[in-house]
Amino acid sequence: MKGGRAIRLGSCFLKGEMMKKLLLILFVMATPIYAGDSSQKPYEVVRAEADEDAGTLATVLDLTTAGNFASKGTPIKQYKKDAKSLAPTNVEFIFSAGSAAEKTFKAVAYAYRSGGPARRVCTISCTTGTQAVVVFPQGGTATNRFWVDTITVDTKPWLTSVRVPTTQNNNNVCPVSFDILGHEFIRWYIYEADGSTGNEAGDVTVYGSTATGDSRWQNSSETINSSISGNVTVDQSGTVTVAQEGTIDQRLQTTRNIWTTANNCVSAGDEPTALAVDERTFRTIDVARIADSSGDGKITFFDIPASANGLRFTSSGITNDGTYTVNIRAGTLGKTVAEARADGTDSNTTLIGTLAFIIGQQVSTDSDFEMAQSVIVTVGDATIIWKFSGVVDSDRTCEARIDMQGADFIVIIPTTCSANSKLLVKGF
Asked: Looking at the DSSP assignment, which residues form a beta bridge with residue 97?
C-alpha cells in the first residue's frame, strides 16, 4: 500500500538462464481507495432523543464563558479519518420529534477543531410532517415519532452554503447538509422545543450521515494507469528490485459501468401510487412490493454500484409519444438490497425526484423499444441537484443525472405507464 493506493505490479519470467540485470517495463494499476467509491454510510445517532437543551438560543451556549473546545460537552459527533475512509467533507442531518405532525422546534449547530473555539454553523427552524419514523435507524420500533419535513435556515455565519431542499412541507424527510471545512466535531443544540409549551415538539433526535472522498475526484470513479520504466535486479528466486526509479506516466480512466434496466413496467394493470407516510422505509416498501396490491408489484430496487457517485437515467418504450413517470427514492443500507432482505436491515428513504419521460421514435438496442425523447424532473426532498435534458421532442435521446451523495440504493415507483416502458440507469 503506498500513497493511499493499492498497487499491482506485472512482470515477466525468462526461460533459460536468469538474467541478473535487465530493463523491465512495469505496468502499474493504481486504484484510488477513496476517490471513486461513495461512502455509503448509514445514519447514526448524533443526539439521542431528549428534551430541549435550553429554552432560547441565547441560553443554549454562553459564548462568553463556554465557547472553547474544552467546554464543548456532550452529546457531540466526531468526524475523522479512519482505516477505511478519509475524513468526511460533507455531513447531512435529519431530525425526528414530536408526538404528532406540525410540531416545531429550533436547532443550532456548532463546529469545533481540536483545541479551537466553538464556531456557529447555522440556526434552523424545524416542523414535523406526517411521515412516521416507524423504525429508528439505530433499530427499534418507533411510536408517535415523526420526521421533520420542513427546515428553514434562519442564520448562517458559515463560509459555505448550508443546504436544504427547495421543495419542502410535503410530508417527506427533509435533511440539512453542509461542508464541515475540516472541523472534527459537530454539536447540535435544541431549543424552543418544550413539549408542554404551545406547539413545541418535545423530545428530539438528530441523525447524521457523511459523504467522504477526495474532493478533486468527486462525481467520478476512476483508476490510474501508470507505466514505470527503469533498471531492476532479479535474483535467482525471481525477486524483482527496482535499482533506479524511472519516469511515471499516469492517465485517469473512468470506470465503465454499463446501462442497466432498473425498472421494467408493463402497462397492463394498475400502477402504484405515491407511497403513504407509513410505507417509506426499505422494509415497508419491500413488503408492499411482494404483496402486489394496487400495482405495488411494479416497484423495483436498484443497487448503486460502489464504484459510482452519480447516476444517469434514460428510458425506452414500445409506443411513440407514450408517457412513463417514475418517483425515485434513495436510501442507505450499508450493503446490497439482497443482503438487507436476508438479515432484516432497514433504511429510511427520501424522495429525490420525479422523472416524467415521453417516448420518441429513435430505435433502441432493445427489440421493439424506442428511446425517450423528453424528460422533465420535479425535484424531491434531498439536497441534491438534478441536471436533465428537458423537452427535446425531436426523436432524439434524453437523460437526467444526479450525484447520489453516498446513497447505496434507489427505489423506482412507476406512477404512469401508458405503454410498456423501461427505466435505464448507469453509474458514473
From this structure: 146, 204
Q: Is the peptide bond before 75 cis (omega within 30 degrees of 0)?
A: yes
C-alpha grid cell, residue 45: 445517532
**CA dist., res. 54 & res. 61, Å (int):** 9
Which residues, 6 or more positions from 204, have their beta carbon under 8 angstroms from its beta carbon? 47, 49, 50, 51, 52, 95, 96, 97, 105, 107, 190, 193
Read off the C-alpha cell for 191.
431549543
Of 214, 235, 43, 217, the closest CA to residue 139 belongs to 43
SS3 label, residue 51: coil
* 90 phi and psi angles, rounded to 5 deg: -125, 145
Answer with the residue of higher pLDDT: 2 or 38.
38
SS3 assignment, position 43: coil
3-state DSSP of 384-424: CCEEECEECCCCCCCCEEEECCCCCEEEEEEEEECCCEEEE
Residue-wise pLDDT tens digits, 222-277 = 444 444 455 555 555 555 555 544 444 455 556 778 899 999 999 999 999 889 99
Quote the pTM value: 0.54
Res. 318: pLDDT tops 90: yes
CA–CA distance from 360 to each of 110, 149, 395 (Å)? 51, 37, 5
What's the rounded Cα separation, in Å, for the pair 51 and 97?
10
Provide DSSP, 154-210: EE--SSS-EE--SS-SSSS---EEEE-TT--EEEEEEES--TTSTTB--SEEEEEEE
From the DSSP assignment, how many helices (H) and strands (E) are in the chain? 3, 26
